[in-house]
From TrEMBL:
Pfam families: AAA_21, AAA_23. The keyword Isomerase does not apply. Keywords: ATP-binding, Cell membrane, Ion transport, Iron, Iron transport, Membrane, Nucleotide-binding, Transport. This is Vitamin B12-transporter ATPase.
Length: 246
């Protein structure tokens, strides 16, 4: 099923003031527009190539809290997001999402604390039911990630995820892959920055690499996550010998 809420992203560099750090990132600096041809889009690349920077900017421009949550979350622990969002506009689809959430591993602790804050307000009812039935702080790191994805992502929504695999075991990553695939098939749109070769295996997903001088589409087998993992699993002894000799 195809029901994309964001069809294209445009970057308006004439709005940039001064010399912000994101303008020095090659893949970001060369970007003028980016299409979203699938209900699931992955951003991949080495650390520092700009994938999380762009995902954060998409989230903020769309109205999500920079530290995560739905568009109704309103809290600030540390105002550290870039001004890249001010340069972004969207070509949107004809239908608005009924739900949405921005999940970023970097500030998940802050998000969990805010969930506790909201849950303490009697008028909000059983706020924890959307997060596994109890405080995210009372679950292990991996359990809290999985509880949020399983219980809070209601469908027909726009979901932005920054490194969701960071707290998940390989088995849980497989479970999340199935969950993300179902969400995409049933009308949600997901944009995900990840290093996980498991999540990247999701069928029918578009994958953009931020490595090199420009953002460009790649196949699953062309991603470094896949290639390095495959190389290690098939040539473990040789790779360890070379690495540990240094």
């Amino acid at each position: 099923m195809t029901s994309r809420y964001l069809n294209k992203l445009l970057l308006h560099w004439e709005r940039v003031e001064g010399e912000p750090y994101f303008a020095s990132i090659p893949a970001i600096r060369s970007l003028k527009e980016l299409n979203f041809p699938s209900n699931v889009t992955f951003f991949v690349g080495e650390n520092g190539t700009g994938k999380s920077t762009l995902l954060e900017a998409i989230a903020v421009e769309y109205g999500f809290n920079p530290e995560g949550g739905s568009r109704n979350f309103n809290f600030t622990t540390r105002d550290s997001h870039s001004d890249l969002y001010r340069c972004i506009s969207f070509h949107k689809g004809p239908v608005r999402p009924k739900d949405g959430f921005f999940l970023r591993a970097e500030s998940f602790y802050n998000l969990a604390s805010q969930v506790d804050e909201y849950a303490s307000v009697p008028a909000r009812g059983n706020f924890y039911q959307n997060y596994g039935g109890k405080s995210l702080h009372q679950q292990s790191h991996g359990e809290s990630f999985f509880s949020l994805l399983k219980n809070r992502f209601w469908g027909n929504g726009l979901y932005l995820l920054d490194e969701p695999e960071s707290a998940l075991s390989p088995q849980r990553q497989l479970a999340v892959l199935a969950l993300l695939y179902q969400l995409g098939q049933e009308g949600s749109q997901l944009i995900i920055a990840t290093h996980s070769p498991i999540l990247l295996g999701l069928p029918e997903a578009a994958i953009y690499s931020f490595d090199g001088e420009a953002v460009h589409p790649v196949s699953y087998e062309e991603t470094e996550s896949y290639q390095v993992t495959k190389m290690f699993l098939t040539r473990r002894e040789q790779m360890l010998e070379e690495l540990l000799r240094q």
